[in-house]
Write a structure and sequence with these properties.
This protein is of the alpha/beta class. The protein is built from ten helices and 16 strands. InterPro entries: Rhodanese-like_dom, Rhodanese-like_dom_sf, Rhodanese_C, TrhO, TRHO_N.
């Protein structure tokens, strides 16, 4: 049996942060000192992160986040892995915790009704219900809820424009879902803003649904934004729904095209992976800059010279910064 000594945490919290730059420094330093790696966004509207670390280090990290009154109600989705799911730590300040065209929407004021996984499961198949996937194409092509309405969007910022295509569903109960719940906070709020009256969201997203409700009727795998790429969700009635980009046989093996100028992220079966040497087509296979294929289709960025302290504004005084901010 695998030794799953590492935790992978997925979380977000909408909360006002008056000085995101100062908090970013404190947060970044804590991650370094406790060997936490991952991607964390800090903005005036809150936190959003996916991180990994040894189980005991992740316990410290969760306690650290929740010890701040602003983030006390942060809910962590916890999965387990045999190693770090990231190679670096990045803590960045951005205008929003999820890139959208909805900066005017404040989900702490009004958003769709949160459904716990078992509530979502009980409601999703009712006749007057529509399940709405608010994720991007490459995510729902890999996996989605049975009978879900899927929007043709490459980025979440395209969601508001696509809502115009849903006018005929205004008399339905609309159940939104995404990976961890964060996109649904603004998506469901925007639907209410546009005149939809009966709007819900899957609290904790697909990941929590898999953990607490067995993932029933989620077909395929869930795309995740770490080195695992895709994770199993459904323990009840699993099904492969994605197809190999090259031969169209069923496959949920996500890879990046070996041609760095293409780099398309699609499902390619193992046979086609070797046939095209990691490329998505004959054209990309023949590209002069094609990367060597090792059978995974994952190309780690060069980490030579990586310095986890990079980005701390006053690096020599980092420890002073930490103590000063807590005073």
């Amino acid at each position: 049996m695998e030794n799953l000594d590492y935790s992978v945490l997925l979380y977000y919290c909408y909360a006002e942060i008056e000085d995101p730059d100062a908090y970013r420094e404190e947060h970044h330093l804590f991650c370094i000192e406790n060997n936490i790696r991952g991607r964390i966004i800090i903005s005036p509207e809150g936190l959003n992160g996916t991180v990994s670390g040894l189980k005991e280090d992740c316990e410290k990290y969760m306690a650290y986040v929740q010890s701040d009154a602003r983030f006390a109600k942060t809910e962590f989705k916890v999965d387990y892995f045999d190693k770090h799911a990231f190679t670096k730590i990045h803590v960045r300040v951005k205008p929003e915790i999820v890139h959208s065209s909805l900066r005017h929407i404040n989900p702490t004021i009004r958003t769709g009704k949160h459904l716990e996984p078992e509530e979502f499961k009980a409601l999703k198949d009712q006749e007057d219900v529509v399940i709405l996937d608010v994720r991007s194409n490459y995510e729902h092509e890999l996996g989605h809820f049975k009978n879900a309405v899927r929007l043709d969007i490459d980025n979440f910022r395209d969601f508001p424009e696509k809502v115009k295509e849903l006018e005929h569903l205004k008399n339905k109960k609309v159940l939104t879902y995404c990976t961890g719940g964060i996109k649904c906070e603004k998506a469901s709020a925007f639907l209410l803003d546009q005149g939809f009256e009966d709007v819900y969201q899957l609290h904790g997203g697909i990941i929590k649904y898999g953990i607490e409700a067995g993932g029933e009727d989620f077909e395929g795998k869930c795309y995740v934004f770490d080195n695992r790429v895709a994770v199993d969700v459904n323990k009840v009635n699993p099904k492969v729904v994605s197809k190999c980009h090259c031969c169209k046989t069923p496959s949920d093996r996500m890879v990046n095209c070996a041609n760095p100028e293409c780099n398309i992220h699609v499902a390619i079966c193992e046979e086609c992976g070797w046939k095209y040497e990691g490329a998505c087509s004959e054209e990309c296979k023949g590209h002069p800059e094609k990367r060597p294929y090792d059978g995974t289709g994952y190309y780690q960025k060069n980490t030579n010279g990586y310095n986890p302290y990079k980005g701390l504004y006053r690096q020599p005084d980092a420890r002073k910064i930490k103590s000063t901010i807590h005073e």
